[in-house]
């Protein structure tokens, strides 16, 4: 499944790397594409291994707001 999350607070390459790396550490995440200009994160993941709430929590743990 592919999901687009709207994330506030991402402004630079460090932000992009932080969100990408934290999501890629979750079991079941296949692909992460962060789009700073749009403030979105596209995540391709296996619904049987990871939930949307887990994806959101991982991003929020990095200090960003999922809206």
UniProtKB/TrEMBL annotation:
Positions of the HMA domain: 1-67
Alphabetically sorted, this entry's keywords are: Chaperone, Copper, Cytoplasm, Metal-binding
The source's domain of life comes to Bacteria
For whether the record's keyword set contains Cytoplasm, the answer is: yes
PROSITE patterns from the xrefs? Answer: HMA_1, HMA_2
| Annotated Gene3D superfamilies | 3.30.70.100
The cellular location(s) given in this protein's UniProt record come to: Cytoplasm
Pfam families from the UniProt entry: HMA
- Main location class: cytoplasm
Q: Which PANTHER family match?
A: P-TYPE CATION-TRANSPORTING ATPASE
Q: What is this protein called?
A: Copper chaperone CopZ
